[in-house]
Design brief:
Helix 1 runs antiparallel to helix 3 (47-64) and helix 3 runs antiparallel to helix 4 (69-81). The chain has helices at residues 18-36, 39-44, 47-64, 69-81, 86-95, 121-124, 127-140, 154-164. The model has no long low-confidence stretch (mean pLDDT 85). The protein is extended. The chain is mainly α. It contains 8 helices and no strands. 56% of the residues lie in helices and 0% in strands.
């Protein structure tokens, strides 16, 4: 395999050409996709963990070549579940994701994701989906007022700190 890459630095063992690095990264992504789509892996991994791994794989792939929002979501569904049904395509079109622009483009639409069931296995076992739910929850909550503190006399404040902090031994 080393003979294939013209930019391989023999002293460091690293590739120097960005296109060759991209090629290797896409080979690794392709391998991870095959592993994740293996039925035995699907039986072993909880669905939420599989969704997180699929998101990571597709995110990395989208960094290596241009991918529209819709293509990204199709890849995510394909890697996560192994197929894309007609209902998925209909929902994708209804939601308004771009077939041309990548998610990072400033003019790309950012429709609200569909509601999630926090009790579903996908959400319970997925760190990414839990983080999204937490963010959505935090955005709907009113800001908490700052905690009111009563100033204590310096002697009482030092006494209370002495109760919570262990005394330092002198040497």
């Amino acid at each position: 395999m080393q003979e294939e890459f013209a930019s391989l630095n023999k002293e460091t063992g690293m590739l120097g050409d960005p296109e060759e690095i991209r090629h290797v990264a896409l080979l690794v992504i392709s391998s991870f996709k095959r592993v994740l789509s293996n039925p035995f892996i699907s039986m072993i991994l909880p669905i939420g963990v599989k969704l997180d791994l699929a998101a990571l794989i597709v995110n990395v792939e989208s960094l290596l070549h241009t991918m529209s929002q819709a293509a990204y979501l199709r890849q995510l569904a394909l890697v996560s579940y192994g197929y894309i049904g007609p209902a998925f395509e209909e929902e994708l079109q209804k939601m308004g994701y771009s077939e041309v622009l990548p998610t990072t483009h400033p003019n790309a639409p950012h429709p609200a994701p569909p509601p999630m069931n926090p009790n579903s296995p996908e959400v319970r076992e997925s760190l990414i989906l839990q983080e999204i739910l937490k963010r959505e929850y935090d955005q709907t909550q009113p800001p908490t007022p700052p905690e009111q503190r009563t100033e204590l006399p310096p002697g009482l404040d030092d006494f209370l700190k002495g109760l919570t902090d262990p005394p330092k031994e002198e040497k």
